[in-house]
Specification:
There is one protein chain. By secondary structure, the protein is mainly beta. The protein folds into eight domains: 2-187, PLAT/LH2 domain (Lipoxygenase-1); 199-317, Sandwich (Lipoxygenase-1), CATH 2.60.60.20; 318-448, Lipoxygenase-1 (Sandwich), CATH 2.60.60.20; 450-579, Sandwich (Lipoxygenase-1), CATH 2.60.60.20; 585-671 and 758-764, PLAT/LH2 domain (Lipoxygenase-1); 682-754, no CATH class; 790-946, PLAT/LH2 domain (Lipoxygenase-1, Sandwich), CATH 2.60.60.20; 948-996, no CATH class. Strands 14, 15, 16, 17, 18, 19, 20, 21 and 22 form a nine-stranded antiparallel β-sheet that branches. The protein has a five-stranded antiparallel β-sheet with strand order 8-5-10-11-13, with no helix packed on it. The longest helix is centred in the C-terminal third of the chain and has 34 residues, at 677-710. It starts with a strand and ends with a strand. Residues 714-731, 742-747, 924-930 and 982-996 have low confidence and may be disordered. One of its GO terms (biological process) is sensory perception of sound. Residues 715-750 have a biased composition (Acidic residues). Residues 702-712 have a biased composition (Basic residues).
Amino acid sequence: MKINVGHNNKGGSAGWFLSKIIIEDIGNKRKYDFPLNRWLALDEDDGKIQRDILVGGAETTAITYIVTVFTGDIRGAGTKSKIYLVMYGARGNKNSGKIFLEGGVFDRGRTDIFHIDLAVLLSPLSRVSIGHGNIGVNRGWYCEKVVILCPFTGIQQTFPCSNWLDEKKADGLIERQLYEMVSLRKKRLKKYPWSLWVWTTDLKKAGTNSPIFIQIYGKKGRTDEILLNPNNKWFKPGIIEKFRMELPDLGRFYKIRAWHDRQNPGSGWHLEKMTLMNTINKDKYNFNCNRWLDANEDDNEIVREMTAEGPTVRRIMGMARYRVTVCTGELEGAGTDANVYLCLFGDVGDTGERLLYNCRNNTDLFEKGNADEFTIESVTMRKVRRVRVRHDGKGSGSGWYLDRVLVREEGQPESDNVEFPCLRWLDKDKDDGQLVRELLPSDSNATLKNFRYHISVKTGDVSGASTDSRVYIKLYGEKSDTIKQILLVSDNNLKDYFERGRVDEFTLETLNIGTINRLVIGHDSTGMHAGWFLGSVQIRVPRQGKQYTFPANRWLDKNQADGRLEVELYPSEVVEIQKLVHYEIEIWTGDVGGAGTTSRVFVQIYGEEGKTEVLFLSSRSKVFDRGSKDIFQLEAVDVGEIYKIRLGHTGEGFGPSWFVDTVWLRHLVVQEENLTPEEEARKKKEKDKLRQLLKKERLKAKLQRKKKKKKKGSDEEEEGGEEEESSSEESSSEEEEEEESEEEEEEEEYGPGMQEVIVQYKFDVNRWLARGKEDNELVVELVPAGQSGPEPNTYEVQVITGNVPKAGTDANVYLTIYGEEYGDTGERPLKKSDKSNKFEQGQTDTFTIYAIDLGTLTKIRIRHDNTGNRPGWFLDRVDITDMNNETTYYFPCQRWLAVEEDDGQLSRELLPVDESYVLPSEDEEGGGQGDNNPLDNLALEQKDKSTTFSVTIKTGDKKNAGTDANVFITLFGTQDNNATMTESTEETVLQSIFMH
């Protein structure tokens, strides 16, 4: 039995603290008590002035409904009248009763959000009634729609209205029945109602008004950070505070973390304990603390973790203290004045992000060459697997070069330290500009194993859409979630971020969170123009081969729409994209005079399964200096086992010459596990240790339940105790199986007996890539050291220009040679001829190309860039001699490469022919023009083997949309990419990649 009680919030002091209500049934001579002991006041407790109360004071099985009311954006749409709502269940025989929506604004174009708790489950709703009291000066109201989300069912329903509730307009109704538009129904993450009690001890100065946060951990995951007192409400000494919250299904809870972020005197808090209870099934968890959260008390920490206890808990996990040593590098400017945060990840959970301020051995933190020691106390994570470290970028010298992080359990010898190397900058202006690094142990490789999430944020194209605020984002996946990442450094290097109609791109590098199911994005509302109109968010995860689109099209502004600064978005579309893998390339520049280069360096990787694109190696740091080692992370197609790479530079800049010493290339492969006897023994020892720990944790929980059962006067722990004990015994084997699987999760991701390993290739270079030195080449092809494969080769190329009028060209000519076995040479500029003036009418120019042996040649691609006074060119043929086996290949062309001649193409792909096809003729200029010429048949054969693509390019109909630059297009197929072609026509396309 329940009652609903509330008031109309009228009068000078409308707030009301209700102790209880007594109802007497005179006819049946029965009396019913409905105790409450809570405020019904907008400025007290949870701000509600209407509540359900169960008979006898039982804990209300409250179901939350989030009601969003949209007022129309037309003249006079707002109202000052009191709005009420009635929700009806699926069959219409249950309803919520009339609920007054207190605290709403209901102004024109605004959105009002209300959280309503009911003791009855109505979702999915059949209909709603909405109306108003028809009092006040501006009593008429135009309602656009009502959206209702029930977190318990995860169902969000939309009830369109688009009508006046005004006795003087339309049909004069001031109450309307609204029905759902089923096509707009959405499924959201299910959440369940919980009650939280917080006990502050009665010690002197135990209370605080600092913002208190908690985070709850269960077997299936963790909550977000939850702020308990958004208005800095006091936690008073000796007082119990109660909160209601909606939590997702996390499985059995095993710990909770509580903290605040204030280190000033008087902000400390002495927490006794916390209790969580599921208001549906009454599962209860106790979390004992009895510690200070105070920078000036106890151990000076402001974060506490508490292990779960109580009848629902199967295993009581112990506490652990971790000694963390943060080593700053020795490079110039390596230290930082910024605030540094660190989080440890283990087999079970994580420590949460901890501010590193309480150093054991140094007063000046994170200085060049420092090894700063900290202690982090948490519920045991068993083995630490990953470290995330970041800084906030504040201070004049915020850039930081982190060498490594060492972690061990306190009390263990230094030899037990687990090393997490970094060797990278956390600096907006260096390396990749990121301020966050996720580190793995030294026997692994974080840059290869971490996933990269490429985030494109589109600001809407409406007036005032841009923002000066700091924007943040958090991604949620089926396996885990990311941190709340502030988007500080864009990949497209735009000067001002989040401008109207623009797309800003960012990269987030972290662990694999699985398929993304939602995200949260918002801003801190700082700056002169804080309001922001978010268009959409797109996330590409090349390693997954997926692209997610999250439409928003809404304001994040205190003074617009619903006034929210943060929004949760769900993907409207998930499409397959090309799957890429990670490569790490390490380049050692030689230690000789003038060895460094300022040119743009590129690499192309060839393997048994194909080749990558040409990949430019870029960094915000100064790279390729004399004697330097530079490491780059690349995303590209999986080429399988690598047999060669091509390394080169563009020859631009003030000091283009470059002496390369060595190149290392690494990537991940999944292969059969092959452990040494020592590794197998170590693995078995770790599993045995885990089993003993689990057994100890289960025994501890069992003894606690027995102890509480014997204790007289116990409350809810005693009730159902035997049932809990029985169920504990029954599920013990199940628990063992579940927990033992934790150590095997990573292995099972790749299949039984399989593991992910790092494959490394070394390429010895020890040569110049420079004009005027060695062979004048800016490009070199390399094979892995100590690996059997193709040998270096030299190709002599003879380019014969036709003997027709104006056949010669002043343009730059480029050639690519393709082989049957080992790929191609890449596009090479034909610069150094044996003739001083290249490509003249009737002339033969000879060039030398150094490359890895290609095997039998299959085709060539030759083109020019259409520059110079006379760019048009009539090419007779190309002859290529393989100097290793002294074989000559003949590639006849006899066509124009000119915009104004033939078919207007500047690029030709040519196939080799037998020597007999090439008929030198003294009396036929240009060749191949006589009767019964075999080349006529060859031209038909080549055309038959070629494919013609009709490409249409449409330039946008916006101001200044056109360009005078040369536009290039590359088409990618399932087998290989074809030519990069210059487009000279004005029409144009199919899906491709553009650059100019």
